[in-house]
Please model this.
Amino acid sequence: MRSVIEGKVWTLGRDVDTDQIISGKYLTVIDPNELKKHVFEIALPEFAAGARAGDLIVAGENFGSGSSREHAPQAMRAIGVGAVVADSFARIFFRNAINLGIPAIEAPGVRAIFATGAIGRVDLTAGRVTNVTTGASVAFPPLPHHLLDLLEAGGLVEKVRRELEARGGSSPGPG
Amino acid sequence: MTANGGGATLAEKILARSGGLERVVPGQIVEGSVDLAMMHEQGAQTVAPFHQMGAQRVWDPDRVVIAIDHWVPASTEGAAVLHRILRNFASEVGLPHFYDVGRHGICHQILAEDGWVVPGDLAVGTDSHTNMLGAMGAVATGIGPTEMAAVLALGRLWLKVPPTIAVRVRGKFAPGVTAKDLVLRILGEIRTTGAAYRAVEFSGPTIERLSMPERFTLCNMTTEMGAKTGMVAPDATTLDYLAPIAKRPPRPLRPDADATYERTIDIDVDDMPPMVACPYSPDNVRPLSEVAREHIRIDQAFLGSCTNARIEDLREGAALMKGRQVAKGVRFIVTPASTKIFDQCLKEGIAQVFTDAGAVFTNSSCSACFGGNMGILAPEEACASSSNRNFPGRMGAKEARIYLMSPAAVVASAVAGEVADPRALA
Model:
């Protein structure tokens, strides 16, 4: 994980729930490369075809509310989204994104300083999101250490794999 | 009035015990040991990460429930594949508590009616409405499938201790008013983000009088408030409900009298009318009678979902339906929350009442609630629904309009062919 992430920004409004990220009709799709064709089909239809690896998503309040579907961040990971920055997140989406190794940054006020097409820069350690195009920026409280560790490991799978390996390769027994 | 005496809320007490700690405070990160883990179809996405983690076995197979519910029986090839992955995984790692087709039901209802979650538990599930089980006096919350893989491997997960919002309710429901109307009313106040990352603790004389099914409805929709969990402190009602079915001994905890709440909301339901959540958000709540005056035509009515498809809901709906007909041009879908409830409806003649009226009475599943299985709406259409979400695209087309209401109001709307107040039928 790089501590500074820079990319082209796509903006979304507030209350973009997971139905608007990946519609319920695609929930039986588990191939991320198929899912990514339908990401934001309701909220931002031009995204799936236009997005490139490294692009950033900047959203308003309550991003990712609604269902627990991991299809939403899975699809974003398949596209290679560099980071998701929002005024605020719904809790399950936030956990899912971090667990998949996608930096999810809560930066109140961030939506107001971006328009689609701007270049954004996220400094994870300094805790600042900057609109490189306009120079505007907002600060955010840096992620707690255990979440930075999780991102550093590349996500939860790798973190647990290391933990189990350190223990000798198997899960603990009951109790 | 906010108590501020340094005592612990119910969520704090449960998370402290779960983390093996004397005391926890909001914002603190706790490694909690999980008492119950539930997976539905989304659990199919747990299998690959579980293997990639190098896990060999599940921490405690007797604490894992698999309940398929979104597409039951499989309605697409994709769904059939998800079910197959789960069945194979369950036999490979030895997970005996699999509610397969024929014993199936909506995952949360299965956990409730078979006593899988007991007071004091930390329960997690791969569905956002896992909050419903907080009605047992537990911390119950939704997680994603990768996180579930870690829970299956380790039996624990990290949680940030949430601040708690107290919702204290007094007064008596007027005729035609239900727990659904109450939770919609509260949603209108807390809104969809007001309880984000927080626990919602319901208390007060009205809550104490509510049955467990009513408490399930309340806690279910704390998900729409953004809450981590919604809960009711366990009492005699909880313990009586669980006595014949509990899978493990309850460990009831109650909040301290001097617990510190972030915010306290006081509600008096004495004069509260039936409510409705209008498109396109569950917090767009208005008195139902006011919306009914706009004569909003509906194309579909749905009595189902984890929020409101228990036997009590279906009995109430059938009592209103009896002797009446579904309006011409309305498709009325009735879907019990579990196979047990389905069977009970057959025994009591409830299924017959609905089919006589021209409704379609389906086997148990999530049905029309989520727009991926059946009862899908076309762009111009409107639906009166007892479910929990009405975001754009929730039941199909993004333009389709969903009105969320009580089971009685759904029946009244199906009869009238438009959004209707159930008191007009009584």
Observations:
- The longest helix of chain A spans residues 156-167.
- Chain A touches chain B through 48 residues (CB under 8 Å).
